[in-house]
Design brief:
Blueprint (H helix, E strand, L loop, with lengths): L1 E2 L2 E2 L2 H11 L5 E3 H8 L4 H13 L3 E5 L10 E5 L1 H9 L12 H28 L4 H22 L12
Antiparallel strand pairs: 1-2, 3-5, 4-5
Helix pairs in contact: 1-3, 2-3, 5-6
Length: 164
């Protein structure tokens, strides 16, 4: 998903979702790591930076933390709060009620897979041993496409790029 020219992957959206669920709409990198299940503080900090680039959070240092180096802390902006309320954020959520919300999730997942596919195709042209990964990515995209069409009656043709 792209917002303000910043590509937000599913983990960035997972962090945004975690922030929106906090009473004060703020988390340090360690807290976000714990809440989301992401295994690396540096990875969380990079997601914080993506969200900041998209004007969805502000970043500062938590000077009250009992650590020698203050951790990075993200706080939702007003725009971030609004987007968190309007977007279907949590890719692992099972609490999906409407077909529109399910379709939004499938579209977001297809977007993530399309991005992965582009990366794998670039690698495959440089390294022919990457072709099995390319085939697997194509299979995943086809599976999601079939699911969206069969289960959600989605017209994915309107999302097919006409220009490359």
């Amino acid at each position: 998903m792209k917002h303000k020219d910043t590509r937000l992957d599913s983990d960035a959206l997972l962090v945004l979702d975690a922030l929106s669920r906090q009473d004060d709409h703020r988390l340090t990198t360690s807290e976000a790591k714990t809440v989301t299940g992401i295994s690396d503080n540096d990875y969380v900090r990079r997601r914080f930076n993506k969200l900041e680039s998209a004007d969805l959070v502000t970043l500062d240092k938590d000077k009250n933390a009992p650590t020698p180096i203050p951790p990075t802390r993200a706080t939702l902006t007003e725009e971030g709060t609004g987007k968190a309320e309007s977007w279907d954020l949590d890719p692992k959520s099972t609490d999906i009620r409407s077909a529109e919300e399910r379709l939004l999730r499938v579209e977001r997942r297809l977007d993530d897979l399309d991005s992965r596919l582009d990366t794998i195709e670039e690698e495959a042209t440089r390294d022919p041993e990457s072709i099995p990964e390319l085939i697997e990515a194509r299979r995943l995209v086809a599976t999601l496409n079939d699911y969206a069409v069969d289960e959600l009656n989605a017209d994915l043709g309107k999302y097919y790029p006409t220009e490359v």
